Structure prediction request, 818 residues.
Amino acid sequence: MSIVLDIIASVGLWAAVLRIATPLIFGTLGALLCERAGVLNLGIEGIMTFGAMIGWLAVYHGADLLTGLLVAALAGAVFGLLHAALTVTLGLSQHVSGLGVTLFASSFSYYLFRLIVPLSGSPPTIEPFAPVTVPGLSDLPFIGPILSAQTPPTYLALLLALLLAYAVFRTPLGLAIRMTGENPHAAEAQGVNPMAVRYGAVIVGSALMAVGGAFLTLSAFNSFFPTMVQGRGWICIALVVFASWRPGRALFGALLFAFFDAFQLRLQTAVDGVPYQVFLMTPYILSILALCVMARRARVPQALMQPYRRGER
Amino acid sequence: MTETVLEIDGVSKSFGDNKVNDAISMTLARGEIVALLGENGAGKTTLMSILFGHYTPDEGCIRVAGANLPAGRPRAAIHAGIGMVHQHFSLAPNLTVLENVMTGTEKLWSLRSETGRARTKLKALAERFGLAVDPDARLGDLSVGEQQRVEILKALYNDARILILDEPTAVLTNLEAETLFGTLKEMARQGLSLIFISHKLDEVMAAADRVVVLRGGKVVAERRAAETSKAELAELMVGHRVARPIRDAHERGEPVLEAAAVSVRIDGVDRLKEASFRLHAGEVLGIIGVSGNGQAALASLLSGTLARSSGDILLYGEAIGDLSVADTVASGIGRIPEDRTREGAIGEMAVWENAVLERIDEPRFSRRGLVDRSAAIAFAETIVRDFDVRGGGARTRTRLLSGGNMQKLILGRNLAERPRILIAAQPARGLDEGAVAAVHARILEARKAGTAVLLISEDLDEVIGLADRIQAIVGGRLSPPVSADEVDARALGLMMAGAWKKEAA
Prediction:
């Protein structure tokens, strides 16, 4: 029992929670934005992989780290445009299109990477984001050291969650997005263009996913390898449901999952005699349990996964 | 007449070879209520969709206060002060009333929604026109009548001066409909102009100043409501004289279905309270009441989709516990559910599939475990022919049939097999005069052939016209039966208000 308490009281654990949560926050917010407008974006896993690759590649070729993030966002937006063209304009099945985008983007990342970076024994590295100290915040007891261990993208992710929560619930654009996800016909009848809203949401949402991926290569690690996203995209899709499509709860969900993950990593080393795979499983099992509790009353956007065609009811 | 606010001038519209609007012209004055009367398929909704910019007309134009309205642009119609209340509401159940109303009313890119100001404006409008709703309620939690108020408020919020209502009472209870017409008259008194689409003669006579009758896409007549009669309008609308059939004297047979003090409890609420009735072969027993008084529970109970919590059900004289759906089919109970699109038929399936769905186990429709399509289609074709289902054949997707024809299909599916019992819930709801007459005639035919019919309805004319005996349903309780020959509409009205309880006490 005291092992558990020691772990929970350690600065290292909480610093790791924020670090692990960051890509999940970006990805979940991105997926949430798409779904609020009524488009499921299963392209997330591939878009994150591509973002991780292209962001890293940009920096490897001399761009600065912020430009790297920006390049990743731009690439994500392009994949978003592809997914939107397939699902919004052509009205194709959102599952199939999304999985297609994931398969394409993942393979394409590796292909491009291999094309540009020759195979070598040890993977090439870049100089990743360094932790920043925010004056005032870093002097706080306990919280201070945790925050001081974080890089700029983490701060950006936290800020973004608040910003998106405000935008979704407090601005006319947010209302238009929610109405489009609930009833695009009603949106149209009120003079909102549901097609444009869906395009915008999917493009911006996909850009966020790619930034989440880029965090992995530009901050968490310093090199790229093709399997590094490791299902984080799928976790994000589940987190959106866990969060009942609310940005604030998405932030909470991402932190909760990250806590489970950071916790089990430390338990692995602290406890003997239990196969480490058991600990690896725990965050996922706990997530399923949390999902059961949280998502049962969730209000799904009513028009999610329904293509909109003008003049047809 | 005062100033004209709206002119529709020679509007025509075709879909393929089908000319649904043929050189239609009409006007609307300030403060006037015009009813657009016509059977289903007469072109009413198309005309109004053109007016609101959902469709572009092939010919003709629309002028609002003398100025041409650009065709095919809803935004322009909203700007010109035209508001539309659709039959199927354009609302989002998961959002609040205020959010539903506010969507699209502010600059999209402004950094803050002026929620406070919007709430004030909405409340002021609600008060001015007597349309009370809670702005912060979740829309999905409201009753249908309240949702319609939101739909009207949405139009008013956009400063509509001309309001179009597409069959506004189709989804309302009688009581809600009366409230609605009070509201509409108040809006006209305050200078708004209204067009409402309807095929119900009663409400047209009650609410409209002027009636424009459409038939086959053309304006066939225009009357001042004060100078016409229901009979004349019915004839103009259908094109020939129609009369609803009335039952004739008929000897009733043995009791076939009885309920003895049956209660149904759902989620802690008693939907039926010790309800008793005895239904005989060859009679129509009318259950009348304002909807929401336990009719749904009663119909589900007798259709086998709901279990009772106490009391007994006797089928052909034997206590049978709870009915299951399979029991009802096996023992010859036909069912016409209240909501034909949700419970009655599956829209995405073909007519023949719907026709045989509940009998698909029977040997005549299956061969070695496979569906015998030709037998099933033949069966469906018989129904289509005998019950005059129009607008498609056995292979048509059911969704494409009009409400009346879908109802005839459901009726045919049940009556083709000469059921011993028929549970009919609101069988004529939402149908036009011609279809109502057809449905009623079929029910009376079945009665004559010995079928016991339980007719659940909130339409006084329907119950008086068809039922031999009548029981009122109020708050889940059933009144003792009265003979239809001994009551009039007034006495029934009192029963629907629960007046019998005082007599018993």
Remarks:
- Chain B touches chain A at residues 54-55, 74-75, 78, 84, 86, 88, 90-95, 99-100, 102-113, 115, 154 (CB under 8 Å).
